[in-house]
Amino acid sequence: MVQTTPFLLVLSLALVAPGLSVRKCVLTGHWTNDLGSNMTIGPVNGKGDFAGSYHTAVTYTTNKIQLSPLQGSQHRTNQKSQPTFGFTVNWSFSDSVTVFTGQCFIDKGKEVLKTMWLLRSRVDNINDDWKATMVGMNVFTRLHSDK
Ligand code: BTN
């Protein structure tokens, strides 16, 4: 009889523990950032590769903004819940390319992508190379309608 209590304790732990697994931060879905830009990331394949689209809210150019493709890669961290990643946006409406790198975090129960980026613009002359790259940060949160 004395044995019953520890047995029940172990049994209830075994039943409850799987449900307590750490929540994963998942890249797939719709995201918006602090500038008001929106992006959609498709499924992440077995190698960690993914594709998607990016609609920037701002541009360095005077061109009309258009939806642009992105391609990226997530670190192979199936065991880990907050993966690092990087992606490239090849802008459809300008000669520029932006590379983003960051980490997908669970912060106060919500997914957040903390990123840094380099935006490379085309310049006509090699002497202008020094001013062709901008750097910045963006924070993305999942669009409410997702998941
Ligand atoms: C361009 O102006 O040539 C292309 C658009 C660049 C938009 C930049 S990329 C980094 C930053 N984050 C955004 O969401 N938009 C700007």
From TrEMBL:
Domain of life: Eukaryota
Coiled-coil zones: none
First and last residue of the signal peptide: 1-21
GO molecular function, one term: biotin binding
GO cellular component, one term: extracellular region
Keywords, sorted A to Z: Biotin, Disulfide bond, Glycoprotein, Secreted, Signal
Chief site of localization: secreted
Annotated disulfide bonds: 25-104
Location of this chain's protein in the cell: Secreted
Function: Forms a strong non-covalent specific complex with biotin.
Subunit composition and interactions: Homotetramer.
Family per similarity comment: Belongs to the avidin/streptavidin family.
Protein's name according to its UniProt entry: Avidin
Organism: Bucco capensis (collared puffbird)
Gene that produces this protein: Avd_1
